[in-house]
Amino acid sequence: MTTVRAAVLRAPGTPPTVEDVELADPRDGEILVRIEAAGVCHSDYHYMTGGLTAPLPLVLGHEGAGIVEAVGPRASGRIKVGDRVALLWRPRCGVCEACVSGNPVLCELGRVQAATGGLPDGTSRLSFADGSELHHLMGVSCFAERVVVNENAAVVVPDGVPPEIAAISACAVITGVGAVWNVVEKAAGRPLLVIGAGGVGLSAIMGAALTGAHPVVAVDIDDEKLELAREFGATVTINSRQADAAAEVLAATGGRGVPWAIEAIGRPATLRQALDATAAGGTVVAVGLGAADTEFPVPLNQLVQRQKRVVGSLYGSSNPLIDLPRIFALYLAGRLPLDRLLGERMPLSEVATAYEHLVAGAVGRGILVP
Ligand code: APR
Ligand code: ZN
Ligand code: ZN
């Protein structure tokens, strides 16, 4: 048992508080990781507002990286003390139908974590000093000095990849790049639309550029974010506050629309823009998470007469054990400019301010350092 500083969410609508909590030792197949960097992802904000719910109170943070300080009993040996690791918010049991059929993002352990607020075995290593119950978020809870996670929720980070890059790679980057790699088909030489140029959307734009899509069209409501989108490979940018996004996309694609559109915000209005901007036979890939009660009305005849599809993609529909090492290798080869995705760096004690800045439109991915 060790005491760690951590950002605790007690109730939706209240700011997170940074306080000392207790962290139990790793059990079978688990590891203790000292956090070096954690990303300020929009998903945590959904839990802060109550748009998404999880067992409370909990320790926030799900996009993190650090150094392994201890390995629990009966671990596989894949992760060793001293390894630098990026943390995954979807573990992988390896034996359920989703895992075996090559779709580990839908591993049953994800549901166990969500329902119990625990690690994959359904129990928590976190508690308050008085022994009362404290939950994990998405099996990670990395807005903390240290975490205990399942070893299957960690990927070794190669030398040369800094902790903040490792952290954002394990959520925003793999979600955006993964949607292009694992969902979009035949991207090369064809138009690709990305709506939303936050951490996830910019990563999708990077993935689109890397894959040879053309033109890469980015839509946002913030000119600064659109400028960044251009740096990452967007060739057409549209500010949807100033212009009709779908009409502009049609104009940029000879009136046809795009075969693939990625929505990286999670709003009905922008999903509709994506659908309207999609060519006949095209597909909208919904990547942005909305609040739990978000609904998206789809005009039926766009599906039938124009044979469009809307599909969802969680966590880049990836197999992180394969895709994350590829992302690291491309970063080290200079082909994924992830450094430019980084925004302001703040101490963990400033977590509430970091989220105020996110909501106010901070450019680049914020990083919290314990
Ligand atoms: N039209 C266009 N762009 C918009 C709109 C809108 N109506 N509203 C917001 N945006 C832009 C913002 O300007 C910002 O650039 O969407 C982007 C959202 O970025 P972030 O807040 O950084 O969110 P991010 O972490 O990238 O996550 C996006 O994916 O995983 C989910 O929960 C996450 O719902 C979130 C989404
Ligand atoms: Zn995230
Ligand atoms: Zn599984």
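^ zinc ion complex. Residues 163-182 form the longest helix (20 residues). The domain at 184-312 is CATH 3.40.50.720 (Rossmann fold).
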